[in-house]
Every structure is written in C-alpha cells, then in structure tokens.
Amino acid sequence: MTRWQQVGRIARWEFNRFVKWRQQAYGILIMLVVGGISGGLGKMAKEARSKPARVAVIGSDRLGFAMPPVDGVRWVVNQFTTEPLARAAISADSIAGALVVDGPGAAHLVLRKRSAWSASVARAMTAAQQAALYTALPLDAAQRTAMTTPFAVEVSTITLKNGTSDSATRLFTGIILFFGVLVLFNGFASLFAGITGEKQQRITEQIIAMVSPQTWMDGKILGLVGAALVGTLLFAVTGLAVAKVLPAVLGSTPFAISAPSDPLSLLIVLLVTVLGVGMWFSFMAAIAATIDDPNSSPRSAMLLIPVLPMGLAFTLLSRPDTWLAQLLAVFPLTSMAVLPVRLLMTSVPWWEPLLAVLLLATATWAFRRAAGKIFAIGILMHGKEPSLRETWRWLRETE
Questions:
Q1: pTM of the model
Q2: What top-level class would CATH report for the domain 52-148?
C-alpha cells in the first residue's frame, strides 16, 4: 500500500468517525421544523396588531402642520386644553400619553410608562416639520426636483481593471468567508477530540508503528476537514432551502440574489478560503499534538486565534489602501480575511493575489510538516506538555 493510499484510508476512517449520516438527517429535520415554527411565529407576530395607544395633543395649532401618522398611536386632538387635564387622564389610564407642543420645533411627551412607540414620535414629527418647511419654500417644480436628485458620480479605473465590486459580488464573498469560518469552528472541536482523545487512550502508539506519523497526521487533517465541510454544507444548504421556500409558504416575497459581476474575484476568494482552512487545520493539529489534557490545558484558548484576522479585516474596511492592509493581504495568517476586503473595496495589482496564494500554500505545507513532526514525539509524551523551546527543537530535527 502506497503512502497516499494509507492517507486516503485514514482520512476515510476519520470522516466516517465523525460524520454519522443518520444524525445529520435528524439535525436537518430538526432545523426544518425549527425554521418552520420560527417563520410561522414571526408571521403571527408581524400580523398581530395591538390596540393603538391614545395620545392627547395639546397646542397642535402651534405646529404649522398636521399631526403625522405614527404606527401604534392614535392622536387625540382638541380634547384636552391644558397639560394638567391631560396628566390627570394619564393617571386615570384613559389615555396613554400626551404630546405638549411648547412652540415651533419643540414639544415634550408625557407618558404613564415607557412605550415602544415613543421613539417613533420624534422621527415622525421631524419628518413632518421638514416636509412642511420644504413645501413653504418659494421654488418651482424643476427646482424642487433638482434639490431631491442626488449628484451622479460614475467611477472608473484606468490602470487596474478591478475596483469597487457590486453588491452581489460582496454578498457572495461574505457567504464564502462566513462558510469558511463555520467550517473552521465546526471542525476544531473534532480535531482536538480526535488527536487528544487518542493520546489519552494510548492507542496511537500502536498505529504509528504501522504508518509514519506524517501519514497519520495527513489523513487526520484531510478526513476532519472533509467531515467539517460536509456537516457545514448540509446545514448551509438546508438553511438556504428554508430561506427560499418558507417565504413562499407563508405568502411573503422570497429574497432574490443577482449574478455577481466579478467571478474572478470570487474564484480568488474561494481559493484563499480553501487554503486558509487547510492552513488553520494544520496549525491547530500541531497545537493539539502538544496538549496532554484539553479540559485543563491553557493552550485550548488558541482556538480563538483565527478570530483575530477577522477583526483586523473589519478595522481595515474603511482603510483598504494603507500599507498595513497590503501587508496583511499577503501575510499567510491574515490573507484569508484581509485579501477579500481589498479585492472588494479597492484596486489590487495582479501580483498581490498570486503572492498571497503562494505564501498561503507554502504556510499550509509548512504547518502540515510541523504538525507531523510535533505529533511524532508529542503523542508519546504523557503527564506534561512540551514547552515552546522543546517544540521548536522538534521542528528543527529531521525525521
């Protein structure tokens, strides 16, 4: 049996170990049921109409415009002439509140208790006042149209083809990145359980007597990546089906996604995400090989390391052209998150995605080799975790 045949057999064993098709079917069924119940309850809550609150208006003649409609509020005009009378009615619970107009552009709202509609009153009054002032301006129809028409600016680039992407491309890029992050966190738990569990049960020593540690680690990484990918893909497809079918069943308009205009950028994002997932799995496999007990080891906190590049990407959304963004876009540990931001928000030279992919592939290979070397010695250690100096010495040693 060749080495890659051994890797394939180990990968299939790890895949079947964590992917139970019956459990996946149960999970999908539960997700469909929960989605249907949530959609039904959401429709009921949306259609449910509470009794509108009666709110008195005192001094409406000072406004200069009609009382605007507010969802959940029924204005009571000219019934109460003074604020004390309105306060007495509020205390008697005959009205929910009173809007006392102090003058043009100012009023105060008196309530018996806090209400959700109170914030909508200020917005509605502001919009009504602005509309009244706009109508009173001595402008003809053409001038009014010109004031409400936005200034049109068409952006084009000369030196580089790609620039700011359309909404569909941004949406698909976000979906790819979010899916990659889900695969990571869905698979990290299985990765730690698969490596540290065997170490605690002391059965791996017998297996690595038949195959090399690198072969064993390669098979584990491939199998666990496949298991995480299948599990995440099944739930993603189920969620997409629910999102498409449920609105039609409930009588609402289903969402529509237009075709992206920049498939090349999406292909680069997909390639970087796949390599990034492989790199982080290899990195975490090396960490797991040094852990003696995952329940008490402080190194389990290193599971949060992949979150840091995502945070950096969000901070660079408004500054994608800085030298730091360019550096992080090709740095292997951050390129999975930062390069898509630059592809979406600015023009990127052709060599930058190529360099990022090459460095990311090199880092994936290096972490995979490091995981095999650390696993070869770390799996035989019990009772203590190797220090960073010991781990570095193992990496420098040849097989």
A1: 0.68
A2: alpha beta
